[in-house]
Design a protein that fits this description.
- The complex is a heterodimer of chains A (170) and B (174).
- Chain A has nine helices and no strands.
- Chain A has 170 residues and is mainly α.
- In chain A, helix 2 crosses helix 3 and helix 8 crosses helix 9.
- The longest helix of chain A is centred in the C-terminal third of the chain and has 24 residues.
- Chain A is globular.
- By secondary structure, chain B is mostly helical.
- Chain B has a domain of 114 residues.
- In chain B, helix 5 packs across helix 6, helix 6 packs parallel to helix 8 and helix 7 packs antiparallel against helix 8.
- The chains are: A mainly alpha (170), B mainly alpha (174).
- Chains A and B meet through helix 2, helix 3, helix 5, helix 6 and helix 9 of A and helix 1, helix 2 and helix 6 of B.
């Protein structure tokens, strides 16, 4: 780990690579895009390591950078207005021969529900559930209060559950 | 309460399956390879290529992009080869830049209904990745990857692009 007062090293940041990948997975529609985004995050981070004032803040800084890159990607992908191919083929490949069930349908439904959330709720939902950050870390990443994080997460989860429930009963 | 547990279970399962693939790709090695050579000649490896392929010069990449967009006689094998060079050597954003260079298209700020190069690149990348996955598993031939609705959308944008995409998607031999 980096000495107190020194800039973090790439190795320090790489300890979070799986969480960053999962965050990117939450924002994107498939794992291939998430890998690209994850790589972009680290390439961008490498060029800005000196701007991290304290090594203790590196984790929050990295997640904030990842959130911004994912958000830019999300905006661009909406702006060009091209419907991505059905993810089911990817998901079927990812399930690696496991027993067929309705997981793929439910996942597509979940992704659509998360995408339909307002941005503030969606970000909290992804940071908490996909990146598995604590409420405090999400609060620091988004520069909001921990109580606000809890409130938004509760609302986001309820909205997603409601949306999925509606689809299920259609 | 059940719905909330359901959501967490779905996310967990998606994460576990995606992480399995992510770990198999040796992310650190890819990143170090990218960092080892200065931009814009960074070797990128997409879709878990078994080996790192050094990036070509920008001129060659632009030529490959031109070949994809303006096919001489519609020879899918050559088109695919051209795009394969790009996908193996570049990141997604670099591919888009390479397409922009010879054509003059602005891929990021194109108004809705215009020629969607971003969409084209996305589609081709997905096709190639699925073809590779299938060839690894020995599954052939591949099913067409486009629904009638998607075909219409592509047709609406550009007939030449449609021919290229359907040719590659149907695994045609030329």
């Amino acid at each position: 780990m980096a000495e107190p007062g020194s800039a973090p090293s790439l190795d320090d940041l790489l300890t979070y690579r799986e969480e960053i990948f999962l965050l990117c997975l939450g924002f994107s529609r498939n794992a291939a895009v998430a890998e690209d985004l994850c790589q972009d995050v680290y390439l961008r981070a490498c060029g800005k390591l000196d701007s991290v004032r304290s090594p203790g803040a590196a984790k929050v800084w990295l997640f904030r950078l990842a959130r911004n890159i994912c958000r830019d990607h999300y905006r661009r992908s909406r702006k060009v207005g091209f419907d991505p191919l059905d993810d089911r083929a990817d998901l079927a490949a990812a399930s690696n021969g496991s027993e067929p069930d309705d997981f793929e349908d439910r996942l597509v439904c979940l992704k659509s529900s998360v995408e339909a959330l307002p941005r503030k709720l969606r970000e909290v939902f992804i940071l908490r559930l996909y990146a598995r950050l604590s409420c405090e870390d999400v609060a620091r990443t988004l520069r909001i209060k921990a109580g606000t994080v809890m409130s938004r997460f509760h609302r986001a989860r309820a909205a997603v559950a409601r949306s999925m429930n509606e689809v299920h009963h259609e | 309460m059940n719905e909330i547990k359901d959501i967490e279970a779905i996310v967990d399962r998606e994460s576990v399956e995606a992480l399995r693939r992510f770990r198999a790709g040796d992310f650190t090695a890819r990143l170090n390879a990218c960092l080892a050579s200065p931009p814009p000649r960074r070797p990128f490896v997409l879709f878990h290529k078994p080996v790192l392929i050094p990036a070509l010069g920008l001129a060659a990449l632009a030529a490959a992009a031109f070949l994809v967009l303006f096919p001489p006689g519609g020879r899918n094998g050559r088109l695919e080869a051209g795009f394969r060079v790009m996908t193996e050597a570049m990141s997604r954003s670099e591919i888009l830049k390479a397409i922009e260079a010879p054509t003059g298209f602005e891929t990021r700020s194109e108004p809705a209904g215009g020629r969607n190069i971003h969409g084209l690149a996305e589609l081709l990348l997905r096709i190639l990745s699925q073809r590779e996955a299938a060839s690894v598993e020995g599954q052939a031939p591949l099913r067409p990857l486009f629904s009638p609705k998607e075909r219409f959308k592509i047709l609406y944008k550009d007939r030449a692009i449609l021919r290229v995409l359907t040719g590659i998607a149907n695994n045609k031999e030329v």
